[in-house]
Hints:
Helix 2 (26-33) packs across helix 3 (37-44) and helix 2 (26-33) packs across helix 4 (52-62). This protein folds into two domains: 7-70, lambda repressor-like DNA-binding domains (434 Repressor (Amino-terminal Domain)); 89-189, Jelly Rolls. The chain contains five helices and seven strands. The termini are far apart. By secondary structure, it is of the alpha+beta class.
Amino acid sequence: MANSPSLESFLGKAIREKRLGHGLTIADVSERAGISRGMLSKIENAQTATSLDTLQRISAALGVSLSMLFRDFGVEGGSAQHVRKGAGMEVVRRGTKSGHTYHLLAYDQGPTKTFEPFLITIDDQSEVFPDFEHPGTEFIYMLEGRMDYRHGEQLYTLLPGDSLTFRGEVPHGPGVLHEVPIRFITVIVYPQRGEAD
């Protein structure tokens, strides 16, 4: 495990292999993805981290699914994925600002996204959050700090060790931040095709 590649170097190698396998130049892919050649070169050479949105555009430019780029990352001789402390990919989500980070804790989920686990850290007590809405069910487990979390018209005070489970279609998000830093795990489980509501 000590010699395992970082996520950045793993992704850079995967992107370069897919690009070369399709006979595409850096110019071809950067133009299709709407990013600069220099940025794509830095990503391929693990010289910079990038957002999930940029990776989505690169995968579309390569004609592969986003999960295909992550395939086999952290997998050693089996199908389990091991993400070490601090190694989760930082993700930019709509409405988030500095002082609020999402780290995605699992990557390859096959052709259909079934769930997304995040470690969320909030350092800025004055931050105001938009309402989030998404399909499926969300589970939150508090690790540190204290906040009031809103779901619909209700506010729930969450302390370390508390959990909250709710329907994602109802507007929700952090409300009052009483004690920072706040850290919590959230897992979004998406409905699968053919499942009853």
